[in-house]
Automatic annotation (TrEMBL):
Annotated source species: Erpetoichthys calabaricus
Transmembrane regions listed in the UniProt entry: 20-37
UniProt-annotated binding residues for heme: C449
GO biological processes: aflatoxin metabolic process; organic acid metabolic process; xenobiotic metabolic process
Cofactor(s) essential for the protein: heme
Similarity field: Belongs to the cytochrome P450 family.
The protein's name in its UniProt record: Cytochrome P450
Localization annotation: Microsome membrane
Highest taxon in the source lineage: Eukaryota
One Gene Ontology CC term in the entry: cytoplasm
Pfam families the UniProt entry points to: p450 (PF00067)
Cited InterPro entries: Cyt_P450, Cyt_P450_CS, Cyt_P450_E_grp-I, Cyt_P450_sf, Cytochrome_P450_fam2
Record GO terms (molecular function): heme binding; iron ion binding; oxidoreductase activity, acting on paired donors, with incorporation or reduction of molecular oxygen, reduced flavin or flavoprotein as one donor, and incorporation of one atom of oxygen
Length: 504
């Protein structure tokens, strides 16, 4: 029988060699795929459990901040999900997020990179030596900012005065309610311009207006459902190219502006007298011009300036806008903040950062605003830098990790009333300010937002200056004010509103 079979094969080979070759090749490929599958299965045999992914979309429909808490009840605080074909580990709740990002900071310090965000951003999506060097330099320069004639605090104080003048022009008249979006975006953007470019712009400057609108439009597109679709399924940038091309157009226009500013700085640079961030970077470039592996070159300067400008404009201005809406909904909280301002600062001088330690209630309100609005619910995606054991599970290197900040900022084990706006979350029994370890609006660990210090300074100085000079009243009954975010964005923004800025 064996010889009959062999004879049949020999006959088959001679009569149809092409088909036989195809079958042999297919057998080899299938065997290789089987071995790879076995190897991958072995490597991932002890991955955290998770919901069964749907074909093509994976678990995308289940990955909302609220739904992640339901998944936690079934699979625990560490679970595996699929975003399309990409596998990711999701961390839910304070304990899991803190253990990964703080206690195992080095392992979880990678940045999960999507094809879309890598094209549109640089610093926050970088990894390895580039990220380390540029971040270290940026933090040091921002912290030790003393170049030019003013400190960062003085730049913010000056800008707060300009913002106050703009609101004062509205005269608090009910016939002309004010939309704060434009004013707040331009004010916060001017602070970044002062630090990075060494100058501020008039609020009516057409080039500046266009610049701010480009930043806002780009973030709107990136944070929209179509932006998330592009990040998960890059093929859609070709199938539905319209929004993607608009993102690239915005980015290119912003790059043209920053490139022009860099060229202007090069022409007037004095090596021992930096005026701003660009000057400091250019001096660093000169110092390392003989280092072939340096990360300090023109391309990195351009993208770093672009990132500082873009990230520093929209996040803080949105927090301010959301915060004013909350204070209008709860006028008794607004009045209590104003009483503390009057008692500590008075009406005759500008607020200063040294005042904050004497103003526990105001400080508590500002922290609660950041907790409650939950600006970036899903956080920036992280990535493991090496194979690791986490809570008994094996997580391979280069696995995308999603620490859900929403689940930390609303963790019922860490906050007395997580779903209510409650400044008491940051006050002790004596009314003194107390920090809560679950306060992570800027994330935590090695990937904590590089602009945290600047943002906190801006929030305190802008809020106290505005409330020192105005009482803010809604054009509708406070009871009817909705604090729900705009549902069209993965970046939490308040619904559009107008108000009256009534001089005090």
């Amino acid at each position: 029988m064996i010889w009959t079979l062999v004879g049949g094969i020999i006959f088959y080979q001679h009569t149809n060699m092409e088909l036989f070759g195809t079958l042999v090749l297919a057998t080899i490929v299938l065997a290789m795929l089987f071995l790879l599958f076995r190897m991958d299965s072995s490597r991932n045999a002890n991955m955290p459990p998770g919901p069964t992914p749907l074909p093509i979309v994976g678990n995308l429909l289940q990955l909302s901040p609220g739904y992640s808490k339901k998944l936690k009840d079934t699979y625990g605080p560490v679970m595996t999900v699929h975003l399309g074909s990409m596998r990711a580990v999701v961390l839910v709740g304070f304990e899991a997020v803190h253990e990964a990002l703080v206690q195992q900071a080095d392992v979880f310090a990678g940045r999960g990179v999507s094809p879309l965000t890598m094209k549109l951003t640089g610093l926050i999506q970088s990894n390895g030596e580039r990220w380390k060097q540029i971040r270290r330099f940026s933090l040091s320069t921002m912290r030790d900012f003393g170049m030019g004639k003013r400190s960062i605090e003085e730049w913010i104080q000056e800008e707060a005065k300009h913002l106050t003048e703009e609101f004062r022009k509205t005269k608090g008249e009910s016939s002309s309610p004010c939309d704060p979006t434009i004013f707040l975006s331009r004010a916060v953007s001017n602070v970044i311009c002062s630090i990075v470019f060494g100058q501020r712009f008039d609020y009516q400057d057409k080039k500046f207006i266009n610049l701010v609108s480009l930043v806002n439009e780009n973030l709107r597109l990136v944070a929209s459902p179509i932006g998330f679709l592009y990040g998960t399924f890059p093929v859609f940038t070709k199938l539905i190219p319209g929004p993607f091309n608009k993102m690239l157009t915005c980015l290119n226009e912003l790059k043209q502006f920053t490139s022009a500013m860099i060229a202007k700085h090069k022409a007037s640079l004095v090596s021992d007298s930096p005026r701003d961030f660009i000057d400091s970077f250019l001096i660093k470039m000169k110092q390392e011009d003989k280092n072939p592996a340096t990360e300090f070159h023109h391309d990195n300067l351009n993208i770093t300036v672009l990132n500082l400008f873009s990230a520093g404009t929209e996040t803080t201005s949105t927090t301010l806008r959301y915060g004013l809406l909350i204070l209008m909904k709860y006028p008794h909280i607004q009045e209590k903040v104003q009483k503390e301002i009057d008692m500590v600062i008075g009406r005759d001088r500008a607020p200063a950062m040294e005042d904050r330690r004497k103003m526990p209630y105001t400080d508590a309100v500002l922290h609660e605003i950041q907790r409650f609005i939950d600006l970036v619910p899903l956080n920036g995606f992280h990535k493991t830098t090496k194979d690791t054991i986490f809570r008994g599970y094996t997580i391979p290197a280069d696995t995308v990790v999603i620490p859900v900040l929403y689940s930390v900022l609303f963790d019922k084990t860490k906050w007395a009333t997580p779903h209510s706006f409650n400044p008491g979350h940051f006050l002790d029994e004596n009314g003194c300010f107390k920090m809560n370890s679950a306060f992570m609006p800027f994330s935590t660990g090695k990937r904590i937002c590089a602009g945290e210090g600047l943002a906190k300074m801006e929030l305190f100085l802008f809020f106290t200056t505005l409330l020192q000079n105005f009482s803010f009243r809604s054009t509708e009954d406070p009871a009817n004010i909705s604090l729900l975010p705009d549902s069209k964005s993965f970046f939490k923004r308040p619904l559009p509103y107008t108000f009256l800025a009534i001089p005090r």
